Amino acid sequence: MEKDHKKILIIKLCCLGDVIFLTPALRALRIQNPTSRITLLVSSWVRDIVSQIPFIDDVIIYDAPLKKRFSINAFLETIRLLKRLRRLKYNTLLIGHRNKLFAILGYFSGIPMRIGFADRPSLWITHPVHFDMNEHEIKRYLRLTEECGATSLNLETEICPSVEEVKHTTELFQRLGIKSNDSIIGIFAGGGQNPGTSMQIKRWDVKYYIEFCRKIIQADNTKILLLGNKDDQPVNAEILAAFQSKKDKMFDLSGRTSLCALPALLQKCRIVIGADTGPLHMAAAVGTPTIFLFGPSDPRLVAPQVPNSIYLWKTVFCTPCYTPESVMQRKYFIGKEFICWTKTHECLKSLTVDEVFTAYSKLMNAISHHDR
């Protein structure tokens, strides 16, 4: 089997959570093919995280399909990629998308074994794998690797922060006055943004976060990190404004740390709390206990399969609305924004602060008991 898969290409352009879901499949490929050259084709959006996945040898960046409209530059980028793939002579391709574009790309790249989601073989896909909408996303990717002999029952995602970023995180905490014995809680109140989709309906209400932070900040050695990128700064600023007298206990890091630095920072947290977004999945992948606040998406399909990762989900009459089927239908979007068709946001509004705090307390007790 190894002889047939000397050079393996995997295509999964985006996004953070999806690429992290791919790591168990990448691990299975590496175990099955220890001497093979494994390349991951991704967008620049996730470049910094891919560099911390331990199972791949090379990364190729390809952004053309994520651009808003067709352009001559996107066309030329695709032609350059096609020439590069033909020159590199891959013999196995795994496609993590349902978009036929990537199968066509594989065909014209001359890759003989092309594995992808389809119901029957075609000119483009030689080894079809049925896309089961009720199956966990990690298992779907593992079924792709099964077609080339790489099987695994291990569904745990995995990212390894670089030594350099771990050092930078330690230095950052020293500058902030965070001590080694402080209990660091990470909060992702924003998120839900990527190049193709905006999912603000995944967010728990900022007023709930403020009330939740009031409950946990009472402990003397608890420090709260408000995390995110520059787009999350308005949300975090609203939370921070409610704690003007606690500036030594709450820190807004949104936009102050790079995506590359985030895994090392998350690894230092005792618990990370937030919506079903890429950074939360990243926290689970570095082994940090997490509490996911699910709403429109289905945790049975995307919740992490790692220890000490729990989720809360209120199954109201319209959940889940963000599914493998609906994500492909433009009627659920306004522009790139996935909308709540009931206009109530009931799935997350019905999730109370007390329920989240109870889950937090139980998880904190379990962690403390384990540390003894």
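Next protein, fold it too.
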Amino acid sequence: MPSAPLFRFGVIADPQYADLAPNLTLNRYPANSLDKLRAAIEEFNRHDLAFVVTLGDIIDREWKSFDAILPVYEALQHRKHFLLGNHDFAVASQHLGSISARVGMPSAYYEFVHFGYRFIVLDGNEISVFAPPEGDPRRQEAKDLMTALERAGALNGQRWNGAIGDTQYGWLAAKLRETKAAGEKVIVLNHYPIFPDNAHNALNSDRMLALLAEHDHVVAYLSGHNHSGNFGVSDGICFVNFKGMVDTEDTSAYAIVAVYGNRLEITGYGREESRVLALQSA
């Protein structure tokens, strides 16, 4: 067993910053996230990391919140990757189409490669009642999905969840075929979990789960959104739902993931759990 990993990367989920009073019912302290993020970045800077990914819900609400939290990331000495969550769209309607650019993302969904791993970053907000502009048919599509899930007795037909559309699904399927042919392993990143069954899962989680199950080179799926965290293994894929940084008054949550040839070692900080995950196709 090698003593050094192939590479390491940092993970933050749901800092959800805003200059707001605490939500005591949900035990969320959005204003405290700036200090929690600063402390996490100080820790990340002590390590040799390939990058740090934030799994969505950078802010809780209001466009001006980006002006406060994004400068905190400037202290990070590593490459950074963002994806967006539902709260990132709790802004004035004129800003809905500008959020990816505001946080420096190349597009709403994208990919990057590191050391034989392809990281596929999904836009789980594409079909939702909050991200598309008013009157966009994707809002109705989300309502139809929610209605169908509710009728089926599913837990996740909730207004705070979203789904990927057909074009993005096709892109994901093509990338999975491409990476298989290239001999790469895949880690999927999305704000919304899809397994285990939970009220915070993507609106089309079953469809996505079935697609990933067809590919034994997909080793992990990392998500946020469910602030309590979650974990499961399905068809050899490890599904890790990281805990929300915004939760609790003074205890943070973030992680460093060490990637080895046959396993992932997750070192959790604060409320986040540490895990050792065996990889399929190792």
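About the second fold: The chain has a mean pLDDT of 97.
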